[in-house]
Amino acid sequence: MLQAIGLTSTPRRELPPLVDDLTFEARPGCVTALLGDPGSGKTTALRLMLELEPGRGITYFRGRPLHRIAHPGREVGVLLGDVSGNPARTVLNQLRMLCAAYGVPASRADTMLEVVGIGGLRDQRLGALSLGMERRVALAAALLADPCTLLLDEPAAGLSPRERIWMYELLRGHAALGGAVLFTTDDAKEAARNADRVVSIKAGRLVADQEAAEFARTRLRPRVAVRTPHAARLADVLGREARAARRAVEIVAESGSRLSVYGSNCAEVGEAAFRHGVLVHQLADETGDTGTPVPPVPQARSEARTAAHASAVAAAHAEAGAVEAGSATGPGSEPGPEVEPAPGPGAGVRPEPGTGRGAGTAPFPAAEGGAGHARPPRTGSGRSARAVRRVGGPLRPLRYELLRVFGTATPLMTSAAVVVVSVAIALVLARTGHTPQNRLLAAWPQSLPLPPAALGAGLLGALAFGEEYRYPTLAADRGTAARRMGLLAAKLGVCAVLALVLGGLAVTADAAALRLVFDSGPLRPPAQWIAPAANWAGLLIGCAWAGVLASGVFRSAAAGLAAVLVVPVMVVPLVRKSLHGPSAYPTDGLASRLRELSWAQWPPEADRLVLGALRVMAQPVGTALVLSLMVLLCAYGFTGLRSRVRW
């Protein structure tokens, strides 16, 4: 069950909050519509439920707030706007990346593509999909981890009537299996037709919470839609005849050529138009919206909210106790035996005949198991035995990060650009001469703050978090996966390996180009290669890690790359100035003293490695990188790791 209690957004300057003390619930097994005019706060309410918007209030998902759920993606499926993903990524790669983030098998992506009926589009790029196909991909992503609750913001906006029928059939199939569905809409007829319960809001306040049948009876009423080039004349004729017959007829001018006539029927309107010679282009019976109901008086509304708040809190605590006591396979725990993935929500389920919701339409596509293998219904306190198999462990964030990195051509294009630029700079430096061999192989002139390979490593690191904030997939501002220590370690490890590979490619290409163009003139066998190689590796890894941490702190790839450039431009001069002059306390013999303090005695040859690492850190660039990484790591800890949910 979903229970939203006292949702209130942060007040705007000289304006009331978009959502003001909103309390309602969405029950399991039902489809609930959040109805309101554009700008009434529907999307803000969803973002408050997902803790993506600052404000007050709390939302319970089966008795627990979102920040107390270990794996939110397995409990709540979200559709906010269009599909959120890199346009260059394929549909299958996008869903497999999310499978790794949610901790479900990669085969679940193929299953859900068949459920939403786009199995043939798995190799299509996200940027090449139509609006209808984008909605299907977004819905497949929302259903990927088999969540109990679905939160959908305008899921049928911009879809054709046939696609709308399919969409709501799928949502009703999910609810029929025990899930809770909440979608927003501004169309009262759509809400009455496709929801079991309608929650109406206006200016962020609750004005009605009704069953669909009661909502249709009190909010909707039949009307006659008339389209005529003489709308004013026909309205006058109908008004005079209604007054003469003493009948209550309401005539509303919808546009210049369209009228809505309430309290009459097509036969009466058509006969009146015929008698007075008024040309009619269209005449049809429709169901009209009477507008948002009038909210109750403040005192009654306050009392109703107080009672709803008390009952919701009591029910939340009662359900939380039931979940903790009897849900061995609830959303926060892992199921014991691993079973194969079951068909997706709604597979092979059709609405009951005669309900008026999709009756007479073809069922939506079934999953691999077919219509006869639908899983048993879920209960409010746990999942069935046919739940989706979970894939956990420390390798889950690593799988996700590898799929994110290699799902597009960004690493390949970055490597190619770095190699080309590095070779060109190395040839120019060799032609002019007077450049040390180490800087020649690194293609690092004195005028540049960083070599091309270091800039490329910093760019790949900045995209680690920056791409997620630019193309969020779970929900806005939350990133593709929860920002936890496991994910941070995976990003740092993958980016370090990419940086080393990129640096090795650049040095190899520079050496090959120099030998090809100038024979062996600029290059000579190095006397000491370990220290320069360690310096080179430390520079590349430091730039990559600075990009990762800065993009995670500032939530932007551009800010991450800017932080990489700040190190040589601003931090290095400050370090050089602070280290200028002799030291009052020399550090000679530090390696031997460290060997004496350690439990395990390392061989004397390791002293040279320790001294080499200390020399690298003692250089201005090394010191600046170490200080910058420490500052960024602390900032990341304050901004990214303060959430109460563990990976």
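Next protein, fold it too.
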Amino acid sequence: MRPPDVTVVVAVYNTMPYLTECLNSLVAQSIGLDRLEVIAVDDGSTDGSGPELDRFAATYPDTVTVLHQANSGGPAAPSNRGLERATGRFVFFVGSDDRLGDQALERLVAYADEHGSDIVVGRAVGVNGRYVHQKLYERNAPDISLYDSPLPFTLANTKLFRRSLVEEYGLRFPEDLPVGSDQPFTIEACVRARRISVLADYICYYAVKRGDASNITYRADHLSRLRCTARIMAHAAGLVEAGPRRDALLSRHFTWELSKLLLADFPALPAVTRKSLCEGIAELLDAYYTDALREGTGVRRRVRFGLARQGAVDVLSRAIADETRQGAPPFLLEGDRAFALYPGFRDRAVGLDDRYYEVLGETVAGRLAAGTVFESADWEQHGEDLGLTVRLRLKVTGDTSSVTVALAQGAMPQSADRPGARRLPPTQPRPSSPGDLTATEAAQDGPGTRVLARLPVPAAKAKKGARVYLDVAGRTYEIPVRTEGRPMPLARRWGEAEPHRVAAWPNSKGRLVITTAPLTERGGWVTRLSRALGSLGSLGSERKSLGSERKRSG
């Protein structure tokens, strides 16, 4: 008898009622029951998951196999038992509270066969607020590398693996690792794989966050998560020698797992726990935190890691608590360098090098360039041109002579609807039309410096908006400033001799977009518009007429 194309392994522990939807999504796969094998392992469930599995096995006896065992304390042991019974050419692991898209397995197997892939990562999305990193799924990719792609940020085992690869290297899940046991398996599979592919044009996997937050990852305490992360990093380091490739892999663990141990809840932990966390993090920093990783880490995380490494537990707690209450601290400008004034800066008792506090061109959460708050941009009419008065508040001290403001017109960047700024790469040219820096003064409502700049904008070029360029400490930042929705000359002329038309519609973000434009005599527009304005009672029918005329004129 021909073996199935794919075996789906489901580790189950108390996931009703999500389990039913998971199993339904498996038996309904477009790949067909004759090409599918489902092995579900009940890890001592007490909520009715076991009987539900048996019901599906009775309904689909040729497809669904159920194994029952005593509770092992984590998903690793049941995943290994299912893997030992698998017979498919490929194996896929699914969480018993998650579900698959109807065509997921058929598409994944076909993509693997087409490209000779040992691993195929299907697009995954979060449900009920569960976060799933999306950078990997920008496009289909037949051949990616673990070391120069976002793959290290997608290390769950919810992928299609060629089973011959798994058996060739004896890959299994570490059963003594309560949190993150899928990462060693996935990391080694990716290191050993001859080809890794991404299928991004179809949602294969729906990762569900349970309403009761009963997932083991959410229940684990700080020290358990630290111990598991240390094991995972050691396993990865044993597979990849020191250098840029290891840095690319381990950057994920510094960015996510270790950073999450030093968030707003850290100061409230018992003193002995905080001390143990700092000691454990310091060991990992000493082992794996290279200069390249340090310089690639944002200043907020970098300072917290540095204080933990120095054993400055109380200073670290104060830094986290202060930022939680007040946001990012002021910055110190010294020539072309900027330093974040977190607690411990140049404190001999702490002894942390300035490099940890230096802002290396990155933005800061909730801020623009180097701790800058974009307060407002006001438009004023001056003859035929506009004046853009930009108000910025830099949370800085020291020498502000390096602060300059410039302006450019042109197509608005896609980020124009998002708060904040983007840092320009050093190779990208910036405009050479500086505005007048009219004032630099101490901010009235807190630490920092307020900068006022007036920039002339030709009205003909300001229909969409302008881009303000801010130089701070030798770094250039682009800040998009939209003119839509602001009192533009076009809108101010409404009601004058020259008639205008107006259109309004909700955009994809649910915002009401209103545009105006001058009308011409062509096609009797003025007459129709006059009738529409003179008869508000028939506004609905006239709006339909205006809409059809607008389409005709376009």
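About the second fold: Confidence is low (pLDDT under 50) at residues 364-371, 409-420, 485-497, 519-554.
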